Amino acid sequence: MERVLKELGQRPPLIFAGEARQLQSHLAAVSRGEAFLLQAGDCAESFEASADSIRDRLKVILQMSVIMTYSTGVPVIKVGRIAGQFAKPRSSDTETIDEIELPAFRGPMVNDPDFTHDGRTANPGRLLTAYDRAAATLNLLRAFTQGGYAGLSQVHAWNQEFVATSPAGRRYEEIAAEIDRALLFMAACGVSPGSHPDLETVDFYTSHEALILGYEEALTRRDSLTDDWFDCSAHMVWIGERTRQLDGAHMEFMRGIGNPIGCKIGPSASPEQVLDICEGLNPERIPGRLTLITRMGSDKVGDHLPPILEAVRDAEHPVVWVSDPMHGNTFVADDGRKTRHFEDVLTEIKGFFAAHDAAGTYPGGIHIELTGDDVTECLGGAQELDHTDLKYRYETTCDPRLNGTQSIDLAFRVAELIRH
Ligand code: PEP
Ligand code: CO
User: Fold this and answer.
1) Count of structural domains, the chain
2) Entry pTM
C-alpha cells in the first residue's frame, strides 16, 4: 500500500486547478439560481468499461442536458459521476450467498465484484489501475467534448436506436429537429461553428465520491498559481452519507482542498448537523464551493427537507442544493435484486422542488445514477418495466441505474418542474 501511494503521488494530476475553479464559478451561478446542475453517471464504474459504454453514458447526459436547456432556457452545468467513481461505501462489511460469507464488494478500486475469496480480497495495486482507468476515461471524454462529437450539430447522433423508438426518444427527436432549424437560422445570420467554435464543444466536468483517502491524498497537489491545495483526481468530489461525521477524516480532508465539494445529506441529518457541515466545509461562505446533495427518500423528503432548507437559508449559507432521488429509494425486489422505481425517483424530485418553492430557496440540480445501455435495473418509466423484467439485463455491480430511455423521460419531467 505504501509503495502504491508513493507511486501515485509521483503520477501526473488528472485535472488542473484552473478547471476546478471554473466549475466552482459555474456552481456559484447555480447557487444564485442562474443555472442548473446535472450530475450523473454510474453507481460504480467498471475497470472493463469499453469506449462505447463511456460514449453512451456521455450521450445520455448530453441528451438530458439539451432537453432541459431547450425546454427551460436555463444553462445546464454537466458533471459526470465518471473517470474515478470506483469506490463504494457499504452498509455491511460482508455478503453471504449460500451460507458462504465473504467481504463485501467495495468498488473495483478495492476488490472485485466476483463472489470468490480471491475476488473479494482487497488489493492496493487496484489504486494504480483506478488511476489508469480514470486517466483513459478522462482522455476519451476530453476528446468527445472538445473534438466536435458533443457539438450541437450532433444532437441527432446522441439518440441511440433503442431510445429513439420510445415516446421520450421521439419527443427528443422533435427538439433535435428544432435545434437543427435554429442552427441553420443562426448560420444564415452569420453565427456558425466557424465563427463561434464553442458551438462545437461542451464543458464537461468529472466527479466521484472521495472515499479512499489515500488515493485522494496522493493526487492532492499544490496549485502553482495560487499555492492552494487541489485534489487533482477529479474536478469535484463529494462526501458520502456514511462518512460525513464532523470530526471524521473525510470532513477534515475536504476542508483542506480548493475544489468545489459536495456532501450527501440523508434523512438522519438534523438541521443543526447540516449547519455544522456548512460551517466546517465553507466557513468563508464562498458561492459554488459547497453542494448539498439531499437523498431523503420519496416518503421522507416532505418532512425532512424543509427544516434543513430553512436553517441553511436563515444562516445565509450560499449552497448549491441538489436532489439525489436514487439512494433513498432503493429496495430489494422479490428475486433478491436491488431496484428502484421510476415513480419514486420522480416523487422525490417533485418533493424537492415543492420544498424549495415553500422555503424560497433554489432547487439547483439533480444527481442521478444512469447508464447509456438498455438495462433493466430500475422499475417503471415509459417502458413500464416490472419485477419480471429485472432478470433480462441486470448488469450493475452495485446500485440499479436508470437506462437510457428512463433517463431521457426523467429529463423531460424535470424540465417541466424547472419551468413551473
Ligand atoms: C452513492 O452516491 O453511490 C452513494 C453510496 O450515496 P450515499 O452516500 O448517499 O448513500
Ligand atoms: Co449508488
Assistant:
1) 1
2) 0.97
